[in-house]
Amino acid sequence: MESKYGGESINFIHAELRSVLQIFVGQKTATTGVGGLNWLLDKADAKSGDVKLSKAIEAQFTDVFQKLELIKVPLEHAIVANPKQVSDVYEALGRLHTLIQQDMVAGLHFRE
Q1: Residues 63-112: pLDDT tens digits?
Q2: Secondary structure string (H, E, C) spanning 44-103
Q3: What are the residue ranges spanned by the domains of the chain?
Q4: FRET label pair with 76: which of 21, 27, 30, 33, CA 20 to 30 Å apart?
């Protein structure tokens, strides 16, 4: 658990996820646009069931962020006070991890 004594673990998780999301969606400004991994997935026509894989991954990012927002106390307190909320975040992160590590890699036709 990061920042065990600072009570900032949730903020650090948010920051890390925002960084990963930025790589996924690319950088878009008023004058430039750099496609991210979502663009590559769309070009590869990668799917998760009947849905574009890029949209499934974006939806999972949203789910994780929404679940994190529900935790209003430092993580070390939430683990004791509301383990269900922490478990929900953990499971949502697991689903995001699977979508990225397995589905995205397969959708982009990467090989080990």
Answers
A1: 999 999 999 998 889 999 999 999 999 999 999 999 999 999 999 987 65
A2: CCCEECCEEHHHHHHHHHHHHHHHHHCCCCCHHHHHHHCHHHHHHHHHHHHHHHHHHHHH
A3: 9-107
A4: 21
